Amino acid sequence: MRLGIFGGSFDPVHYGHLIAAECCREQAQLDELWFVPAAVPPHKLDRQLSLAADREEMLRLAIGGQEAFRLCRLELERGGVSYTVDTLEAIHGSRPDDTLFLLLGGDSLRDLPTWREPKRICELATPLVVTRPGAPEPDYGALAQVVGSDRAQEVRRQQVAMPQIDLSSTDLRQRVRHGQSIRYRTPRAVEAYITAHRLYRPA
Length: 203
What we know:
Order of helices and strands: EHEHEHHEHHEHHEHH
Mean pLDDT: 94
Structural class: alpha/beta
Helix content: 40-55%
Strand content: 15-25%
Number of helices: 10
């Protein structure tokens, strides 16, 4: 199986996440794509995330109906700071015959050398770098520092293109906090969940 791994806080999930995932599924011919919500993202230690149960349920609502999408609770069950290398090791250990792909944005690719065990990450999974029209070209030089120039060029040839969609979870949270609409920025079921559970509102 060709299995894509998409990690993040998903606080909340939005259409940018979903379209990136679908573009990767289609262009990289993935059999399945797993959304892996983090317990505690290493780069967001200074921010209080929404409850794991809320982020998990919003993801379930968002990916319902796409049979190739799955929700993986591995990092939530493990707890603590969620390191990508640990997650990939666990998935590879349970599915050694699968070919793993790790979804990355251009910013994440640039920062990859600072992650825990970046070389091992790239041994366990092939990075799928997602690009958008008008965005700066991803820094494959950063990847070459980790895996060498030949492998970096191989990854570059597999990069995935997605439409220009200027959405972020930060923006959605701010819009809810200020009483603004998030309609058409996230699936209707997620929007309804946020409203019903009064997420992202001022205390």
